[in-house]
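Researcher: I'd like a candidate sequence for this fold, 194 residues long. If you have to choose between options at a position, lean toward the conservative one.
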Protein backbone atom coordinates (compact mmCIF):
# COMPACT_ATOMS: atom_id res chain seq x y z
CA UNK A 1 0.00 0.00 0.00
CA UNK A 2 1.35 3.45 -0.94
CA UNK A 3 2.07 6.11 1.60
CA UNK A 4 -0.39 8.94 1.90
CA UNK A 5 0.57 12.29 0.50
CA UNK A 6 -0.45 15.87 1.09
CA UNK A 7 -4.07 16.75 1.56
CA UNK A 8 -5.57 17.06 -1.87
CA UNK A 9 -8.91 17.59 -3.56
CA UNK A 10 -11.92 17.69 -1.28
CA UNK A 11 -9.60 17.47 1.74
CA UNK A 12 -8.93 13.78 1.18
CA UNK A 13 -5.46 12.43 1.65
CA UNK A 14 -4.68 10.15 -1.29
CA UNK A 15 -1.79 7.84 -2.10
CA UNK A 16 0.81 9.78 -4.06
CA UNK A 17 3.68 7.33 -4.29
CA UNK A 18 2.39 5.91 -7.61
CA UNK A 19 2.51 9.31 -9.40
CA UNK A 20 6.11 10.31 -9.96
CA UNK A 21 6.04 13.90 -11.17
CA UNK A 22 9.50 14.86 -12.39
CA UNK A 23 10.48 18.55 -12.40
CA UNK A 24 10.50 18.51 -16.22
CA UNK A 25 7.02 16.99 -16.47
CA UNK A 26 5.73 19.43 -13.84
CA UNK A 27 7.19 22.38 -15.79
CA UNK A 28 5.76 21.12 -19.11
CA UNK A 29 2.30 20.64 -17.62
CA UNK A 30 2.44 24.06 -15.92
CA UNK A 31 3.40 25.71 -19.25
CA UNK A 32 0.65 23.87 -21.08
CA UNK A 33 -2.11 24.79 -18.64
CA UNK A 34 -0.79 28.30 -17.91
CA UNK A 35 -1.60 27.94 -14.21
CA UNK A 36 -5.28 27.26 -14.88
CA UNK A 37 -7.56 24.24 -14.52
CA UNK A 38 -7.74 22.39 -17.83
CA UNK A 39 -11.46 21.70 -17.34
CA UNK A 40 -12.96 24.98 -16.10
CA UNK A 41 -10.11 27.49 -16.52
CA UNK A 42 -9.82 28.50 -12.85
CA UNK A 43 -6.55 30.47 -12.54
CA UNK A 44 -5.50 29.61 -9.01
CA UNK A 45 -2.37 27.40 -9.15
CA UNK A 46 -2.42 26.68 -5.41
CA UNK A 47 -5.70 24.77 -5.85
CA UNK A 48 -4.59 22.73 -8.89
CA UNK A 49 -3.68 19.06 -8.88
CA UNK A 50 -2.07 16.80 -11.48
CA UNK A 51 -3.77 13.48 -12.35
CA UNK A 52 -3.02 10.78 -14.92
CA UNK A 53 -5.31 10.69 -17.95
CA UNK A 54 -4.65 6.96 -18.45
CA UNK A 55 -4.11 5.33 -15.03
CA UNK A 56 -1.89 2.63 -16.55
CA UNK A 57 0.08 5.09 -18.70
CA UNK A 58 3.42 6.79 -17.99
CA UNK A 59 3.88 9.86 -15.83
CA UNK A 60 4.89 12.02 -18.81
CA UNK A 61 3.37 15.41 -19.54
CA UNK A 62 1.22 14.01 -22.39
CA UNK A 63 -0.53 11.67 -19.94
CA UNK A 64 -1.12 14.25 -17.21
CA UNK A 65 -4.15 16.46 -16.59
CA UNK A 66 -4.38 19.55 -14.35
CA UNK A 67 -7.67 19.97 -12.47
CA UNK A 68 -8.90 22.25 -9.71
CA UNK A 69 -10.48 20.98 -6.51
CA UNK A 70 -14.03 21.28 -7.85
CA UNK A 71 -13.33 19.59 -11.20
CA UNK A 72 -11.42 16.72 -9.57
CA UNK A 73 -14.18 15.72 -7.14
CA UNK A 74 -15.03 12.05 -7.54
CA UNK A 75 -11.78 11.36 -9.37
CA UNK A 76 -9.77 8.47 -7.91
CA UNK A 77 -6.14 7.57 -8.21
CA UNK A 78 -2.86 9.17 -7.25
CA UNK A 79 -2.31 12.91 -7.68
CA UNK A 80 0.24 15.60 -6.93
CA UNK A 81 -0.15 19.33 -6.35
CA UNK A 82 0.78 21.38 -9.44
CA UNK A 83 3.04 23.64 -7.40
CA UNK A 84 5.91 21.74 -5.86
CA UNK A 85 7.84 22.56 -2.75
CA UNK A 86 10.41 25.37 -3.08
CA UNK A 87 13.94 24.15 -3.67
CA UNK A 88 16.61 24.25 -0.96
CA UNK A 89 18.24 27.17 -2.81
CA UNK A 90 14.97 29.17 -2.85
CA UNK A 91 14.32 28.50 0.85
CA UNK A 92 17.89 29.55 1.67
CA UNK A 93 17.56 32.68 -0.49
CA UNK A 94 14.38 33.67 1.38
CA UNK A 95 16.12 33.11 4.73
CA UNK A 96 19.15 35.18 3.64
CA UNK A 97 16.88 37.99 2.42
CA UNK A 98 14.95 37.98 5.72
CA UNK A 99 18.20 38.08 7.68
CA UNK A 100 19.59 41.07 5.74
CA UNK A 101 16.32 42.81 4.87
CA UNK A 102 16.95 42.55 1.11
CA UNK A 103 14.02 42.56 -1.30
CA UNK A 104 13.37 39.41 -3.34
CA UNK A 105 14.80 39.39 -6.86
CA UNK A 106 11.63 39.23 -8.97
CA UNK A 107 11.46 39.20 -12.77
CA UNK A 108 10.46 42.89 -12.81
CA UNK A 109 13.32 43.83 -10.47
CA UNK A 110 15.71 41.80 -12.63
CA UNK A 111 14.63 43.77 -15.75
CA UNK A 112 15.01 47.11 -13.91
CA UNK A 113 18.47 46.11 -12.66
CA UNK A 114 19.65 45.17 -16.16
CA UNK A 115 18.33 48.47 -17.56
CA UNK A 116 19.88 50.49 -14.70
CA UNK A 117 23.28 48.90 -15.35
CA UNK A 118 23.24 49.87 -19.02
CA UNK A 119 21.77 46.70 -20.52
CA UNK A 120 25.29 45.30 -20.93
CA UNK A 121 27.44 42.60 -19.39
CA UNK A 122 29.54 44.12 -16.60
CA UNK A 123 32.53 41.92 -17.52
CA UNK A 124 32.82 41.87 -21.31
CA UNK A 125 30.46 44.74 -22.20
CA UNK A 126 28.36 42.83 -24.74
CA UNK A 127 24.85 44.37 -25.07
CA UNK A 128 21.71 42.44 -24.22
CA UNK A 129 20.63 42.63 -27.86
CA UNK A 130 23.52 40.31 -28.78
CA UNK A 131 23.50 37.88 -25.83
CA UNK A 132 21.12 36.91 -23.06
CA UNK A 133 21.87 38.79 -19.84
CA UNK A 134 21.69 37.09 -16.43
CA UNK A 135 21.82 38.45 -12.90
CA UNK A 136 24.66 36.90 -10.92
CA UNK A 137 25.11 36.86 -7.14
CA UNK A 138 28.63 37.98 -6.18
CA UNK A 139 28.34 36.07 -2.93
CA UNK A 140 26.46 32.86 -3.66
CA UNK A 141 23.16 31.95 -2.02
CA UNK A 142 24.73 28.88 -0.36
CA UNK A 143 27.52 31.09 1.02
CA UNK A 144 25.03 33.44 2.71
CA UNK A 145 24.45 35.83 -0.22
CA UNK A 146 21.20 37.71 -0.66
CA UNK A 147 19.35 39.70 -3.33
CA UNK A 148 20.71 43.11 -2.25
CA UNK A 149 21.76 45.48 -5.08
CA UNK A 150 25.44 45.44 -4.05
CA UNK A 151 25.50 41.62 -4.25
CA UNK A 152 24.19 41.49 -7.82
CA UNK A 153 26.01 41.73 -11.16
CA UNK A 154 24.65 41.77 -14.71
CA UNK A 155 26.51 39.22 -16.85
CA UNK A 156 25.99 37.73 -20.29
CA UNK A 157 25.34 34.00 -20.26
CA UNK A 158 28.90 33.26 -21.45
CA UNK A 159 30.55 35.22 -18.64
CA UNK A 160 28.02 33.98 -16.08
CA UNK A 161 28.92 30.36 -16.70
CA UNK A 162 32.67 30.90 -16.98
CA UNK A 163 33.54 33.00 -13.92
CA UNK A 164 34.59 32.31 -10.37
CA UNK A 165 36.08 34.57 -7.68
CA UNK A 166 39.85 35.02 -7.87
CA UNK A 167 41.53 32.75 -5.31
CA UNK A 168 44.05 35.49 -4.44
CA UNK A 169 41.21 37.36 -2.74
CA UNK A 170 41.61 40.54 -4.83
CA UNK A 171 37.86 40.77 -5.49
CA UNK A 172 38.15 40.28 -9.25
CA UNK A 173 36.86 37.35 -11.31
CA UNK A 174 38.81 34.51 -12.90
CA UNK A 175 37.63 32.77 -16.08
CA UNK A 176 37.31 29.02 -15.73
CA UNK A 177 39.42 26.88 -15.53
CA UNK A 178 41.87 29.50 -14.17
CA UNK A 179 41.91 30.04 -10.42
CA UNK A 180 43.40 33.54 -10.57
CA UNK A 181 42.23 36.65 -12.42
CA UNK A 182 44.45 37.95 -15.23
CA UNK A 183 45.96 40.67 -13.06
CA UNK A 184 47.01 38.24 -10.31
CA UNK A 185 48.33 35.81 -12.93
CA UNK A 186 50.44 38.60 -14.45
CA UNK A 187 51.71 39.71 -11.04
CA UNK A 188 52.76 36.14 -10.16
CA UNK A 189 54.45 35.73 -13.53
CA UNK A 190 56.42 39.00 -13.10
CA UNK A 191 57.39 38.13 -9.52
CA UNK A 192 58.71 34.74 -10.73
CA UNK A 193 61.06 36.53 -13.16
CA UNK A 194 62.54 38.75 -10.48
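Model: Candidate sequence:
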Amino acid sequence: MGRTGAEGPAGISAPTSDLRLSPGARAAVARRCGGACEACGLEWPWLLYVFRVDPAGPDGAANLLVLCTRCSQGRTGPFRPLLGEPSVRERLRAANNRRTGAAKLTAARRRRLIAARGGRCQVCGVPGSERQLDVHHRRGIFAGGDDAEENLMVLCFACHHHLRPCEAGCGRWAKLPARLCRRCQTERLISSWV
